[in-house]
Q: What sequence folds into this?
């Protein structure tokens, strides 16, 4: 049954997940790329770790370029975690993508490699269209499955784009554009629980994992890495935080939801902003100023957090480090 959050949206969409998964299929797999002018607002802002794009024309061009490079790309919706927002809703969409790298393009000459990776995207939708978006793609999974070293590939991409003066600049707070969405989520207990887990970890209280994670928790991290339990969470989060020990951690958005036949879920968008001043996930400290955009989804069960999906874009972080140090 449609709720008030769907007012202003085409009657064919029965609810928020149907809309989000449906327009994704229409654009990418049904090849209705021109429908972006209908589904995306004219002043749409899309922020990803690698860039910020404003307006539909750039999105349409990027979509066509991606499909030319990955013509069989399929986007399989795993979940839509959402909350009401003024005039509509904010959705946090998790997809698993499959594709073969069959065309030359932004990733370099075609490799023919088969790929599988995830995307997490927060979208504010109102008056029948997406108008504000934050998207994190598992770039390290794509690059590594093509057979490349992350740092070497990032350095080569800077060169392909014309060098440090001409290349696309990663997203940072200084480059942000204020869009229409100013919400911070809802007050659901499981959204607050996930936000607390991340905040405690980023405060160096890594013992908190053993208190809140199911011992058999299934975990999914950048590079299409899977792990299990509190120790698996520690192996991702500790090296990330140790690379940026003085950086400021911030929760930007937190949603919790309960839905029929699904476990309680949560979606949190967060960031680390500061210097690369520690040893960890990104090697020897360089002192580079870095912004890390992250999104985390989680499911909860009777013994705590039972599934987690977290994405950051390692290549966007390496790009910031390389541009700051001149190592290109």
A:
């Amino acid at each position: 049954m449609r709720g008030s959050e769907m007012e202003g949206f085409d009657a064919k969409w029965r609810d928020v997940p149907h809309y989000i998964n449906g327009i994704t299929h229409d654009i990418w797999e049904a090849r209705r790329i021109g429908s972006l002018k209908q589904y995306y607002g004219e002043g749409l802002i899309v922020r990803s770790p690698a860039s910020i794009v404003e307006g539909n024309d750039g999105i349409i061009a990027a979509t066509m370029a991606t499909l030319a490079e990955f013509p069989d790309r399929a986007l399989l919706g795993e979940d839509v975690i959402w909350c009401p927002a003024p005039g509509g809703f904010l959705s946090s969409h998790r997809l698993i993508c499959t594709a073969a790298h069959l065309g030359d393009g932004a990733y370099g000459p075609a490799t023919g490699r088969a790929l599988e990776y995830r995307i997490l995207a927060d979208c504010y939708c109102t008056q029948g269209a997406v108008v504000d978006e934050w998207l994190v793609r598992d770039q390290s999974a794509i690059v590594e499955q093509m057979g490349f070293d992350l740092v070497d590939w990032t350095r080569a991409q800077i060169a392909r784009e014309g060098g440090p003066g001409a290349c696309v600049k990663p997203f940072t707070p200084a480059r942000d554009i204020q869009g229409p969405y100013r919400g911070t989520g809802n007050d659901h207990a499981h959204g607050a629980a996930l936000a607390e887990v991340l905040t405690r970890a980023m405060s160096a209280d890594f013992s908190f994992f053993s208190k809140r994670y199911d011992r058999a928790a299934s975990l999914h991290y950048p590079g299409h890495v899977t792990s299990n339990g509190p120790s698996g969470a520690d192996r991702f989060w500790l090296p990330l935080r140790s690379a940026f020990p003085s950086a400021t951690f911030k929760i930007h958005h937190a949603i919790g939801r309960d839905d029929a036949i699904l476990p309680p879920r949560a979606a949190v968008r967060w960031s680390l902003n500061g210097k690369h001043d520690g040893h960890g996930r990104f090697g020897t400290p360089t002192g580079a100023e870095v912004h890390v955009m992250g999104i985390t989804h989680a499911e909860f069960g009777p013994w705590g957090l039972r599934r987690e999906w977290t994405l950051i874009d390692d290549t966007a972080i390496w790009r910031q480090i390389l541009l700051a140090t001149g190592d290109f």
Summary: The mean pLDDT is 95. The CA atoms of residues 243 and 279 lie 5 Å apart. The first strand starts at residue 40 and ends at 48.
